[in-house]
What does this fold into?
Amino acid sequence: MTAPAAADVTSALQAKFPSATSRPSVDHPAFNVPMSEAKTVLQWLRDEQGFDFMNDVTGIDWAEGASPRFTTVWHLYSTTGHLYIRVAADNADDENPVAPSVVDLWPAANWHERECWDLMGIKFDGHPDLRRILMWEGYPHHPLRKEFPLAGIETELPDLEVAAETQAKAIAAPMAGGPFVASSKGEMNLTEAEPRAKDESWNEKKPKPHAD
Amino acid sequence: MASEFTVPDAGAKTAAAAASPEFETEKMSLAMGPSHPSTHGVLRLQLELDGETVTHCDPVLGYLHRGDEKIAENMTYNQFVPYTDRLDYLAPLANNHAYAHTVEQLAGVEVPDRVKAIRVLTTEMARVSSHLMGLGAYGLDVGAWTVLLYTFGEREKLYTLFEELTGARFTTSYSRIGGVSRDLPEGWLEKVSDFCDGFLPMLEEILQLLTRNKIFLDRTVDVGVISKEDAIGYGLSGPNLRGSGVKCDLRKDRPYWGYEQYDFDVPVGSKGDCYDRYLCRGEEMRQSIRIIRQVIANFPAGDHFAKDAVRIFAPKKDKVLTSMEELINNFMIVTEGPQMPAGEVYFEAENPKGTLGFFVVSKGGGVPWRLKIRGPSFCNISILPKLCKDELVSDVVSILGSLDFVMGECDR
It folds into this structure.
């Protein structure tokens, strides 16, 4: 394995995979590839270019209505060349996004893909054990999707027997209309975000009551 | 006569049991945690045991449910700084700086030398404090009480220094995008220097309690061996990676904040067992002190924030009260957040537990569109199922402690 340099990797990758296009990035070399080629590109980067370290597998949700809605992003690092690379692929299906699993290339991807499936709802094709990792098995939502509110959604508890006995469920945090509540557009409710005086018993017209 | 007193051969007994179907063993499942003292947070290990041997291990996370990434997408860049304290809550300063640096890269802000020096200094202090906690708790896991008491004593001294600097002992929120929240207090550097003088002999004493301790050696040597290939393949980082003999340290390989000007060594293990990881942490503390001394010796003068950070920082309060433009500027920064250009940025910092990465996707505006946190502990414990297989239950405790993870980073 050779130690790569940023410019070499860029030109080599574009020569080998003409369908890979450069992706605007502030720091590291980044590429868009078609989802069908993603795994081939990643394997080639590992075997030929020395990107032996899988940093991260994650997804980006471009919000409801956007198409393509989901992008899967891989971050690789070369422990010999000390170089990062970002590979991104748009998921074709907006409703049920699917990406190829790379667990057989990097065991590290196992938990990252489980996390991405759990929170973002991107399925990884070929993952040996695609279970939820942070939420409980059977939880109906994917919390990192943009339409999921910050406060949460009222949900049945995982164990229905316990729920029936205790009358308890996972309730949404009581913050509706409050300052930092998610909207599907990714905007904040800025009219409510202002710090304000709690005591409203006095104002310009009504004098402040004396504390005695 | 001696033969009368020989102990029955345990190995032969097991072999006999395996051979005859009469002694067929039944597998048993054991839930270790969520709040087992050795799990260093709320981690549940679903173990399958054959006698005392672990045949299968399934770590279950997800008890904290804090939703850091979701929260980050709903608040301004500045407002997220306190949340980074809570990732690796044993080294909040290191997290603050890593996050601030990521957003600075996105904004294209270069911080002055003084800020870089402060960041290196406080990150190394955080490293010492985190390793002290890790070492003490590890000692406790394998049955050594005194180590914890000693390391806590030293850690308290560090926390007092943090308190003088940041105003808080634990949740420091010290870094700002484009600088740090306040300059060093008068005479603080001398106090850090004094701490280093007192700490080094104490560290030797602490390490002496473990390094040649027979019980400690029995519990750690050749236990939980991670090969070089596995360490890289599973994406381990920090002392867990270096313990396996991979010389990989971002402070050397991709220097940031001027790490290249300091002289220090990267300790590397040879076997990759629990003992190697312990030795790496011990040596890293010595190296951190070395770095701290060099930073103090050449401490640059200047501002504690970047000049072009005016569009990120709220302006100074005296200006806000006299100038209308500054008032409007202050109002916009506080309510809508510092306006960032659109773009993507990924930065990893060498934190005590490993490499902490932030991936920020910005569509412009004051709120990140997507902020992904790559917690080192999350990656470090993903090797547990492989590591715990065919080990004894008591070794699971030893392995957990040697990985030195923090659940705040595993669980989001």
Summary: Chain B touches chain A through 47 residues (CB under 8 Å). The first strand of chain B starts at residue 28 and ends at 32. The beta strands of chain B are 28-32, 44-50, 53-60, 175-176, 179-180, 340-351, 354-365, 370-374.
